Amino acid sequence: MTTDHEDVALIADDTVRENPVIQWALSRVAAPLRDEIEIELITDAEVPAEGYRARLHGGRVTVSASDATGFSYALTELAARLEAARGRVGRLAAWEEDARPAVPLRGIQRAFSSVHEDSGWFHDRRFWTEYLDHVAAQRFNRFHLALGMQHDYGNNPVTDNYLCFAYPFLFDVDGFSVRAEGVDAAERDRNLEALTFIARETKRRGMSFQLGLWNHAYDYAHGSAQLYPILGISDDNHAAYSAAGVRRLLEEIPEIDGLSFRVHYEGGIHDLGHEVFWDAVFQAISDSAVASGRVLQVDMHAKGVDDALREAVAKPGIAPVLSGKHWAEHMGLPYHQATIRDMEGARPVPEGESLRGVTEYTRNFTRYGYGDFLSEDRTIDFMFRMWPGTQRLLLWGDPAIAAGFGRQSTFGGSLGIDYCEPLFFKARKGSGTPGGHDPYVRDDLRLGVDDWKKYRYTYLLWGRLLYQPDADPEVWRRFLVSEYGAAAASAAETALSSLSRILPLFTVAHGVGASNVGRWVENPIYLPVSTRRPSDHYWWDMEQPAVWDTVGALDPLMFSSVADFTANAVAGTPDARYTPLEVANWIEDFTTRGAAALAEFLTTADAEDPQTARTVIDLEVLIRLGRFHASQYRAAVQYGVFERTGSAEAIAATVALVEASRGHWQELVDIVEGVYQNPLPWGLRVSETTHWALQLPRIDDDLRVLRQERDRAAAAGATAAPELALRDRRPWSIDGVSHVRPAAYQRGSSIPIRLDITADADIASAVLHYRHLDQSKTYENTTMHAIDGGFEAEIPGTYTDAPFSIAYFFVTTPTEGLPSIIPGFTDDTLSTQPYHTVASTSRAR
């Protein structure tokens, strides 16, 4: 059957032609079109879900897919190609593509955090139309609207609790006299109508709608003065009301595909006996799902999940999934940390601890990663969530790292990832103000509720490269042409990609804090170099004293601290980990390349364009952050040498480097003066409501103490710096060393592991390190035996007789020289996994 959709001739059967998702996608094609195009849609069950086969020949496009989502992806790709061709079919290049998703779950997550700053976009229908159009076109297949993430029960006083315990802000629940004081029936109806609209519009674009109910606390105590006190509720009816509330919510909005819950104490339910409350809520979801004949996903935030909760969620009509953090509460490099920090291990429960006994004690290792949830025999699916501790404000865009996440989001058979979008947590914890939503203060840069448009490139890279990590670069390059112009697009790509690698690397290597509450990587609280004046801020989430020397990595198995590095150098016992000086050099490389590209960009870009101005400002900030961090790394190493040898040369070099750092920071402050809010409110702690300018006095205080130490060392006639092996570079691969990963292994049988070495490669010894994909465990290691052509070892059958896949890597040492990690990072994009993984033949996913 042929029908016209504006200038589009559509050939499809009635079921396909009338599908609302396809109709939405078809409207995207029609929008840029200036002459007629014929589209044939063919249903083909052999094409995988969300995939398509497309062919453009002449003025006709033929698309084969097995579902509406696959058709919509082909049509939105056609729309993007037409837009790049300025709507002229004759200008379209040949197109033949076989596309299929690499990651099953590709989520984008947005949070409502402030009645003052978020109500505008929540109720703005035009905002949702444009925002969801863009997100869906980037092939995200799940939109997660999070309510209640703005507060963590037990951690802080609460004021703005709007939509936090959501039910009384949306409707009355029969049989209960529960209400939010100050919210009348008309306001509740308006909120429910907005939520219903969002859910329907999400579904109309082919995405699943996930509603996050992250808080079930009704009284936060701890000195809280809630703006909207919840009346008529107590411990006696809390569970029953919540169950009835979620049941009505699912009745009112049948478009809800799933619900996300924070099931540990920060969501308002004490750890001790938490399964009693959640069993009631899960039963209500199950009853609703069964009654409506559908299956609802229940996403439990994995932190603190124990066997009791896993048993409680196992009910008819529920598809449970656990969602763990990727790189703690930050954005790191694409791989999953080889090991967690010691402070994140399990520990004894203090006597009488009922609030946090599971979350922060017996299962503390579940806080910041995948914990022990990746069993090959698991009955509950697992996914990741990228928390907003690193990238909150500055523009980000690196195709290599985004593709790396696309390859690593199914790690251990996981479903995929939810990405907490830019500006997430803005105005959290009651820090919002009327009219304060836009972080810019300059009128020409402000976007109001459309602030997300600054980050359209970020959304594009995340969505398209989660779907297809090996996507044609044309996917993002045509966007850069439309955003910055053909002459400036290439320089923009290089500048953004290079400078966007700085903070993910720094996040991983410099683990000053795993929590986003205490650490904001883009806008950090200054950490001293001198041990004489430790930080008064970083006291709870790192080793003490809180100075650069003692900061370990978020992956302490792959990256060395300054303390370990300099102590080993002085002792003459270097290890294989990546060193602070290597990290400094990588950061300088990214900065140098990015700065050169930005200079080229400035010669061709439209200086009057607001998005160009926003981009330039953020890239200039990243350049100064890169130079600052590299200089501080070098200063900290020199100071570590001074501390361990007394060298006057080393402390003098420390002072000179920190003085240079101070200069880079002053330049940063000058760049952002009058551009961004000061302070920038993301919460109530000093690290959540800060500004770069506020760090200058801290830097000056550190410099004052360092100069005193320098002067004392000079007066004492201290010794010169000794000759030390301070490793600052290594090759991306070692010539003559290779390894073939086993395809799989049989549980209970040993795994032979071979490292091949050519005759001209100088490798004196090799050690195999291995561990189950269980972050509650530590690595085993065994010295490999030299054989003709390399080294061999085996992972014993007693170790493989377990329901976990295995991670492993090698440390090789040459006859003369320094040890190395194999495989390690294999190129300067840092987007590869520095260790191998192998699954058993029993893994069913």
Overview of this structure, please?
By secondary structure, this protein is α/β, with parallel strands linked by helices. It has four domains: 98 residues, Chitobiase/beta-hexosaminidase domain 2-like (Chitobiase, domain 2, 2-Layer Sandwich); 367 residues, TIM Barrel (Alpha-Beta Barrel); 220 residues, no CATH class; 102 residues, Immunoglobulins (Immunoglobulin-like, Sandwich). 35% of the residues lie in helices and 16% in strands. The chain has an eight-stranded parallel β-barrel with strand order 7-8-10-12-13-14-15-16, surrounded by four helices. A six-stranded mixed β-sheet has the order 1-2-3-5-4-6. The longest helix has 36 residues.
What are the key terms here?
single chain, 845 residues, alpha/beta, Chitobiase, domain 2, TIM Barrel, 4 domains
- Which structural class best describes the helix and strand composition? alpha/beta
Q: Which residue ranges are poorly predicted, with pLDDT under 50 across at least 5 consecutive positions?
A: none
Strand order of the largest sheet: 7-8-10-12-13-14-15-16
Can you count the beta strands? 27
CATH level-3 fold name of the largest domain? TIM Barrel
The end-to-end span amounts to 41 Å
| Helix proportion | 25-40%
- General shape: globular
CATH class of the largest domain: Alpha Beta
With helices defined by DSSP (H or I, 4 residues minimum), what is the helix count? 21
